[in-house]
């Protein structure tokens, strides 16, 4: 017989956006594998919605507002809206794009672009005037008397070290693992954080400075890659 993965592929080929979601196919496989061959004991899974209407746009907007890091797969699963429709809603309905693993506004306003450029220029000036500026950000100060507060423009994950470096780096260490409780989550998160080597942070801040130049050269627009 066919495996669950093979069945998912066949269904998608036959029904495209109207196919059952992957999780639903695996649920039915588990149901039948247990020996229960009845299709009446389980409610029939609803087909994902394919309409790019106001109701679905509002559902996607609420989900994105809760967490800008959600993937299209997660949004489709959560809202029961087909993958391709979610993608169209994000790009055409909400005018968003993915930047540094976050969905953000596709078009920035004039004031937002100007603010991004000004922040980058200010940071470059700080580094030029104070060679120890970045070192204070990296090491901090236990007494908090020497803490540096760095300005950050809104809607700018491409300019935030936590977004383009730290969170993706920690995600690689934690991905695919299951935890019993919150304490275990905290313990493993701390281990992942402590496993990051000093040279990785150094490279991150070097890339951060390059991103200032890219933002300035792009006149405040989003830019891709390093």
Sheet of most strands: 2 strands, antiparallel
- Helix share of residues? 55-70%
Give the CATH H-level superfamily of the largest domain: Ribonuclease H-like superfamily/Ribonuclease H
Which stretches are low in confidence, meaning pLDDT under 50 for 5 or more residues running? 41-45, 139-143
Task: Count the beta strands.
Answer: 2
Pfam families: HTH_48
Domain Mos1 transposase HTH: 1-36
InterPro entries: Mos1_HTH, RNaseH_sf, Transposase-MT_Hybrid
Protein name: Mos1 transposase HTH domain-containing protein
Question: Quick gist of this model?
Answer:
The protein has 226 residues and is mainly alpha-helical. It is built from ten helices and two strands, in the order H-H-H-H-H-E-E-H-H-H-H-H.
Task: List strands and helices in order, with pairings.
Elements: H1 4-15, H2 22-33, H3 54-66, H4 72-79, H5 83-93, E1 96-99, E2 102-105, H6 110-129, H7 133-139, H8 161-174, H9 182-194, H10 198-217
Antiparallel strand pairs: 1-2
Helix pairs in contact: 1-2, 3-5, 6-10
Task: Give a description of the structure.
The protein has 226 residues and is mostly helical. It has 2 domains: 4-105, no CATH class; 110-217, Nucleotidyltransferase, domain 5, CATH 3.30.420.10. The protein has helices spanning 4-15, 22-33, 54-66, 72-79, 83-93, 110-129, 133-139, 161-174, 182-194, 198-217, and strands spanning 96-99, 102-105.
